[in-house]
């Protein structure tokens, strides 16, 4: 059996849904499970809605109408007005109505998951209905009953044993009856609350289903021809890899390559399932295959740019050297506030650390550090990681930018630039 994952960009409009059905039709006769993300930029819009609700701001009704209109418009282009999908979509959105009628619950992350998950619940309703409408037999499956997680909202940790049992129990039977359409990004707790697996987590969902079902392969259909050595938005002369090893792909996602969610590869590597990254615009092209392979020769370096970083430099208030005791205290604040370190460096009197700017967490971190440490920081900087670099070419890559911090190891060079 095969697992396909369709991201938001692939289903951002009615034409995208039709295109999905045409891709799927080519695989008629094969057992297929498809994982679908929220349409277009819906997750961002639902994040804004959550924020508006939690902060009690008045843009809430407008944001909500915009999200509903967007989905109903897509549905109108795909179905006759009498089709039951309109009710299904409306009933899914009612969940949000119920939620926002009440005073906000004080756990932001909990509320976030209950609201933001609606994006995937609606998109999969529309896709499943459209496949059936296009005579491709399919069944809508609620991923929350299969991907079991703890209650670490917004970054649910998967209970693999339970998940494996649920998936193996039901899904093979369903696959015999037609295509299984399910949501990316979602999980469920033992109390039946919804969790999410972290932004862009649909790839991970595909990988979970595939490894529990011992799929032949997973294909993620994207708006790029495959995995490129750099993001063409920022770099010219990019090249596509035909093949990459699991290890290289894991390294790339670790350093922030956004083409695949970081948690996706490991389960596939363990189960020896190849991951294909292919273009939904050119579905006959082979794309990139990630599998167990001897390391590719890299003619061009792999370049990963992470924007929206903070470089924080921390020193002790009493001007003492940065010691292990300081570091262990500093790290405990990072762990407690869920701030993930991208690169760090220690010197005698200060500890410098670069991470993604997430305002809420950053502010809490500053508060925690304040009693014992002095801090300085730079915002709006970028972290560039270059794997398989050529030493001479490193400076050319950063152009006229200032390098604030630099680390070079055998395979990987990293620079924080402004
Ligand atoms: N819709 C979610 C997001 O945008 C999950 C995903 O797309 O993979 O983060
Ligand atoms: Mg998405």
UniProtKB/TrEMBL annotation:
- Give the matching InterPro entries: AceGlu_kinase-like_sf, ACT-like_dom_sf, Asp/Glu/Uridylate_kinase, Asp_kin_monofn, Asp_kinase, AsparK_Bifunc_asparK/hSer_DH
A GO cellular component annotation in the UniProt record: cytosol
Q: Which residues form the Aspartate/glutamate/uridylate kinase domain?
A: 2-279
Q: Note one Pfam family from the annotation.
A: AA_kinase
Q: In what pathway does it function?
A: Amino-acid biosynthesis; L-methionine biosynthesis via de novo pathway; L-homoserine from L-aspartate: step 1/3; Amino-acid biosynthesis; L-threonine biosynthesis; L-threonine from L-aspartate: step 1/5; Amino-acid biosynthesis; L-lysine biosynthesis via DAP pathway; (S)-tetrahydrodipicolinate from L-aspartate: step 1/4
Q: Where is the signal peptide?
A: none
EC numbers on record: 2.7.2.4
Q: Which GO terms describe its molecular function?
A: aspartate kinase activity; ATP binding
Coiled-coil spans are: none
- List this protein's GO terms for biological process: homoserine biosynthetic process; lysine biosynthetic process via diaminopimelate; threonine biosynthetic process
Q: Which domain of life is it from?
A: Bacteria
Family, similarity comment: Belongs to the aspartokinase family.
Name the UniProt record assigns to this protein: Aspartokinase
Q: Which organism is it from?
A: Mucilaginibacter ginsenosidivorans
